[in-house]
Structures are given as structure tokens and as C-alpha cells.
Amino acid sequence: MDPKVAKADAKHQKIHSEKRKKDNSERKTGNEIFDKITLETLYKLANQGHIDILNGAISTGKEANVLTGITDDEKFVAVKIYRIATSDFKKMNYYLNGDPRFNVKTKNKRKIIYSWVTKEFKNLTRLYDAGVNVPKPITSANNVLLIEFIGDENGNPAQPAKNQTPQNPDEFFNKLLVELKKFVNDAKLVHGDLSNYNILNKEETPVIIDVSQSVVLDNPISKELLERDINTLVNEYSRLGVKTSFEEVWEYIDPKF
What we know:
The chain has a five-stranded antiparallel sheet, sandwiched between helices. The protein has a three-stranded antiparallel sheet with strand order 6-8-9. A two-stranded antiparallel ribbon has the order 7-10. The protein has eight helices and ten strands. It has helices at 3-17, 24-32, 36-47, 89-96, 109-129, 169-185, 222-239, 246-253; strands at 53-60, 64-70, 76-82, 137-141, 144-148, 159-160, 189-190, 199-202, 205-208, 215-216. The radius of gyration is 19 Å and the shape is globular. The chain is of the alpha+beta class.
């Protein structure tokens, strides 16, 4: 066996031996994402001091799993691992094309995934630097992205607003619009898939996540995506009793395409 793989396997065993108890379905889902290259990548990140232990799933999906990581100094981080086998490469190419930061001309699925992860890291960096309330990016390598853990001091992750309805929807929506305005006008990005599924409710404050598909304002599809994002938010928060409209939100955001 390749020594690097052997070491990665040993690290993997350590990770699993120190996890909290999980049911069989969670273990099966977790094990499916740990292929050879992912193990090597996690081992590399561990050697760099970014992560020591993986401690259970925050979310699972068709394209990526997000796990709780613990660093050597016992701080929590979020570890997002993209799946090579089940990702939607047509969708990824759709959002990568037209982005001047990327020139992806390949059908190699692994290379597309790596570009996708790099894109999410760059988008998070751009948003964080612009003061948007997003998780702080830490590092990325291959199909793995490390970001700030959004949750409490005991490692309990903040829940999406879809699952944890804001106590005061009007106040939460107003806070969200402030973040969206910075997202568009300061970071000059459009989310492209904004809904209460990827807005965390952190102590009644919105934190926007899942920005891999986000596009720059120069992208030909950015205006269409912003219109879709606003329509989605207006529909969701209108159902929660917020009196708002597409026109009102658009006027407040005042995007400059």
C-alpha cells in the first residue's frame, strides 16, 4: 500500500474512533465520501494543523457532506467534502462558464470539482472581506473546503432558517436584506441559489452559506439569478407574514449591472 494512503487510513481510523456515536446510516453516508484522494487530502490538511478530528455530520447532500472538525487546539471548524461520483457537473459548468476568474475547459470530473471548490473559497473570501455575514474561509484543497464553524461552543451547528423559523420574521428579513445588499454591491456577487435552506439562523441573525454557484456581476446570467433570488426570498418571507414585494427589495438592493 502507498505509504501516504496507509497514513491517511490510520488518520481515518483515528477520526472514526474519536467520533461521537452515530447510527449506522450516518456511518454509511460518511464512509462513502472517504475515497483515496479525499483521505490523502484530509491527511495533508491535518499535517498542516488545520484539522485533527472529524466529529459527525452537519449536513449531507447529493454533492457534498459537511462535517464538524476539531483542530489541535480544540476549536470547531466546518469541513465540506464534495463527492466526485454524484455531483451535477452540468450545473457546475453552467455557473463556471462566464466567470472571468475561471477558464475551465475540461470534461475531467475531478478537475471540475477542484475548480468548483476553489470558486467557493474565492467567493467566501470576497464576501467575508466585503463584510457580508458568511462563514470565514480557512483553506481549500482538492475536493475539501474548510470554513468557520457556525454554531455554539458545544459544537451544535446553527440550523437553516427553513428548519429554525425566525422568532421575528420581519426583523430577520430586514437583517437579511442588509447582507444581500452588501453581497451584491460590495462583494459584487450574486448568490444564485438563495433561500432559507442556505441561510443559517445563528441566534436570530442570518448567515449566508453555500456560495459555490455564486457569480460575479459581470457574468451574463447574474441579473437573472438575482431576480430569482429575490423572488424566492419574497415568496418565503411573505408566507411568514412579512409584507414585502419584489419591487421593494430590488429598489433597496439597487444593483449596478
